[in-house]
């Protein structure tokens, strides 16, 4: 009886060891996202390149390139991680799904870390803070002084953006036009298909600089989410810590401010050609 009991105990212990070993192997195989990026030798960044000065297309040295504030930030992140950078362009509303599906490693696209997005992905520290502005035709500036002046009007916003939520939640619009491209929204405003566009202030200022017939109204919205942050997959603690180090370095050195100034200048030069 004692021998039988001992055999059972040994067998149970052996099964337990095997299970723990398998669990340990599984954990080893499931690399954290930072390790996976480094092993792959590149970081794939998703963005929507229609959002000057954050990310946009420009002719540089005779070649069409994806450039902008966020692109420069992405380069610095890749450099600090010791990997190459690959940019994947897609519509803004597709970015979170692409990240969750493993098609990209992170989002650097002027994204606000609101509570709904935080349920789906993790975010870095804030790297840039901006207000949300309302862009209108210059002839209509005096018509739009306060939020109530937008009631019943046709309002444009980028699909899937924080500005869409502002248009839906804070403005009693008569109609909301949602498009994937900010450039297309600007065309709608210029042609009178919408009365105003809600967008981030740097983007509105850039549109004003390249389209003098458009102006920023006196209406603005505070960025309740705190600003722009880099998005990564859920449970990416190590990757978030690494990215935050880059953001801190660039803030302390003043390079982030330089990036936004240079991006504004490049966008203006590109539009004037």
UniProtKB/TrEMBL annotation:
Major localization class: other
Signal peptide: 1-24
Keywords in alphabetical order: Signal
PANTHER family: ARGININE-BINDING EXTRACELLULAR PROTEIN ARTP, MEMBRANE-BOUND LYTIC MUREIN TRANSGLYCOSYLASE F
Pfam families xref list: SBP_bac_3
Organism (species): Clostridium cibarium
Subcellular location: Cell envelope
InterPro entries: SBP_3_CS, Solute-binding_3/MltF_N
Family note: Belongs to the bacterial solute-binding protein 3 family.
Protein name per Swiss-Prot or TrEMBL: Transporter substrate-binding domain-containing protein
Location of the Solute-binding protein family 3/N-terminal domain: 42-268
């Amino acid at each position: 009886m004692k021998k039988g009991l001992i055999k059972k105990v040994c067998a149970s212990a052996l099964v337990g060891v095997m299970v723990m070993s398998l669990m340990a192997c599984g954990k080893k195989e499931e690399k954290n996202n930072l390790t996976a990026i480094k092993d792959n030798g590149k970081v794939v960044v998703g963005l929507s390149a229609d959002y000057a000065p954050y990310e946009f297309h420009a002719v540089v040295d005779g070649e069409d390139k994806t450039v902008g504030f966020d692109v420069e930030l992405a380069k610095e992140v890749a450099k600090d991680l010791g990997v190459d950078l690959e940019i994947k362009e897609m519509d803004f509303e597709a970015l979170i799904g692409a990240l969750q599906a493993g098609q990209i490693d992170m989002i650097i696209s002027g994204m606000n870390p609101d509570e709904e997005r935080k349920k789906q992905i993790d975010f870095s520290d804030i790297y840039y803070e901006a207000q949300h502005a309302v862009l209108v035709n210059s002839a209509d500036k005096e018509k739009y002084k306060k939020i109530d002046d937008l009631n019943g009007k046709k309002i444009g916003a980028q699909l899937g953006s924080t500005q869409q939520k502002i248009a839906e939640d804070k403005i009693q619009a008569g109609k909301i036009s949602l498009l994937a491209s900010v450039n297309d929204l600007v065309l709608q405003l210029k042609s009178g298909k919408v009365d105003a566009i809600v967008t981030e202030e740097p983007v509105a200022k850039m549109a004003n600089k390249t389209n003098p017939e458009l102006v920023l109204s006196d209406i603005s919205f505070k960025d309740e989410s705190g600003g722009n942050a880099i998005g990564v997959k859920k449970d990416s603690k190590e990757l978030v810590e690494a990215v935050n180090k880059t953001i801190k370095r660039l803030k302390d050195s003043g390079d982030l401010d330089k990036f936004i100034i240079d991006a504004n200048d490049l966008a203006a030069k590109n539009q004037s050609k």
